[in-house]
What does this fold into?
Amino acid sequence: MFAPTKIWRRWHRKINLNQKRFAVVSAIAASSVPSLVMARGHNIQRVAEVPLVVSNTIESITKTKDAVAALRFINAINDVNKAIKSKKLRAGKGKLRNRRYTQRLGPLVIYNEDNGLGKAFRNIPGVELCRVDALNLLRLAPGGHLGRFCIWTQGAFEKLDKIFGSFNKESQVKNGYTLPRPAMTNADLNRILGSNEVKSVLKPRGFAKTKRAVAKKNPLKNIHALVKLNPYAKSVIRRHIIESKKTKKEVKLTDKQKAQRKARSKASQAYYKNVLNVQ
It folds into this structure.
C-alpha cells in the first residue's frame, strides 16, 4: 500500500516487551565493540577506548563552545566533522516537504541528569542526546544498523546495572528482568577452533579424491554404453557394417539406368566432336 496515504494504514506494530528490551540491550552491547562502530562509519581512530565514559562534569556544560571543546578534548570531534561535511541536498520531492537536506549521524551522548547539557549539545550537527532512563532504540541503532558511537557519562554508565541488571541479578527498575545469557561464553571462534583441545579430537586432514557425478548415457544411442551392457553387441555392429559395405558394391543398375548412362556418354562424345570439328 503506497499511495495515497489512508487513515487505516497500520503505522505502528505491537512488539513483545521482552523482545524490545532484548533489542535495546543488543544495541548497547554492539556500541562497545570497536569493529562494529567503525563498520557503521564512525571516525573513532583517535578515541581512547570504546565504550567511551567521561566524568559527570560534562552534564553541567551550558554553552555550545564548551561542548565543542569537550568533544575535541576526548578526540570525538572527528566524528562530528564527518557529520558536518556529509550534509547534502536530498534527491527527489522530499526537498519540498520540509526535509531538504540529508546528513550522517555523529556521536550519541547518554547522560543521567541534564544540568544544561541539552542546550549545549543540541546545536552541534550530528550529535544526539538521550537519557539513560529512556534509551531509544532508534538512537542506539539508527536504520537498524548496530554500532552507534556512544559517549557515556559516569553516572549513566553506572546506572546501567540498576536498570538492566546482570546475568545473575534482577533489574531494580524492570520487574523480574535479567540480562539474556549469551549462548557462547567465548565468542572468539578462531581461538576455539585453533585450540589444542579441539585439534586433538578432530580427524586428520584427508586428501581423498573428489567423486564426481557421472552422466548416464542411453545405450540405444551410445555404442560405448551398449557395449558395457552387452559386449557381444560390438561384433554384431561390426558385422552389420561389413555387410552393408558389400551390398553397396554388389548393387546392380537397372536397364533404364544403364540406358540413361549410355545416352549421357554419347551426348558428351558428340559435343566434344563438334567442338573439335569447329576448331
In short: The first strand starts at residue 52 and ends at 54. The chain is about 40% helix and 5% strand.
